[in-house]
């Protein structure tokens, strides 16, 4: 799985501008190699930053959780989107170190927020390689101790494909994390190929409906049925459900009608630097 470098280049330039090269493929291959080399320097040079996107109660607009989303400030390319460099980090094995940095940084930030009186949980995205061994459990435990956090204030987001890679191992690891009290959620729900019988065996707390189903929720009858079905299934299984990619008020109204618990999307807020979250939280939380 390669990052689409042409798309990434356009994104880094901040728009839809298309760029053409005579030796298109050569150019792309070179860019990918350059980007990958630069990635090795990114952690030591402190080029990563976390932004946070609120997950908000459908019923009363309270911010209950923020999802940590990594940003890479490349010295000459500007900000590179995670869709562009996470696949490269996974290919090159750097993802373990980057993932550890994300977990540590998000927990440290959460400690600061909680000390300032913000009643938040933080959600962290995981890559498959991070879950390969039980050492991850120890890492999470130590991180929570280091920042004196309660496990239920940390949420881990996993995709179906991560879980289905080593099903038995995933079940063991997730059971340990669940016993610790960490909040576990399935990301991009509906896009993977996990079977419902496995889902039932996993100690999950939340399903996150993929934004591809939310996008045309109000115009496409099939998408509406999918959203309504996922929500009612989650409700019946006593799982909470979060809708991703909510951009318009009509979508939110439908989701509320279907019984969705939380939503996330540009309608409420884009991912923001930590300091902006503090301000937003105070604005939306009655004292
Ligand atoms: P994701 O986990 O599904 O994250 C949600 C993505 O949707 C984010 O993109 C977010 O900015 C975007 N988004 C949020 N609201 C809306 C909306 O209303 N409309 C639209 N069109 N998009 C919205 P982002 O930040 O570019 O991240 C892309 C992906 O990169 C993430 O998808 C996740 O899979 C991965 N990623 C980000 N941070 C990390 C990380 O720290 N570790 C790992 N392993 N993966 C990460
Ligand atoms: Ca996610
Ligand atoms: Ca649990
Ligand atoms: Ca997602």
Automatic annotation (TrEMBL):
<feature type="domain" description="EAL">
    <location>
        <begin position="32"/>
        <end position="285"/>
    </location>
</feature>
<protein>
    <recommendedName>
        <fullName>cyclic-guanylate-specific phosphodiesterase</fullName>
    </recommendedName>
</protein>
